[in-house]
């Protein structure tokens, strides 16, 4: 895999994102920096992709691939083939397209992604 290179020294805050997406129980904060699009995903307790983001993207399952790191909470992901994985704070993860996911317990889930931010939870 080739190395990623950047040309400019930059810093941006996810607290002042370039774009905000707000489906039910969902906060997606997007920053464009260094030629890349990064996202902070915050899902409230009770969040489930098939009940929240599905309402704006209108697909049967999430068709976005994800690569990121969880900083808070717990998320269970189930692929369309039935296989499951649970992500915890401190975990790095990759998730292929074709899945549902839901927040476990009563703790807000927060992750930062280096893939998918350009399109996740964007209305169809």
From TrEMBL:
<protein>
    <submittedName>
        <fullName>Cupin domain-containing protein</fullName>
    </submittedName>
</protein>
<feature type="region of interest" description="Disordered">
    <location>
        <begin position="1"/>
        <end position="26"/>
    </location>
</feature>
<feature type="compositionally biased region" description="Basic and acidic residues">
    <location>
        <begin position="7"/>
        <end position="21"/>
    </location>
</feature>
<dbReference type="InterPro" id="IPR014710">
    <property type="entry name" value="RmlC-like_jellyroll"/>
</dbReference>
<dbReference type="InterPro" id="IPR011051">
    <property type="entry name" value="RmlC_Cupin_sf"/>
</dbReference>
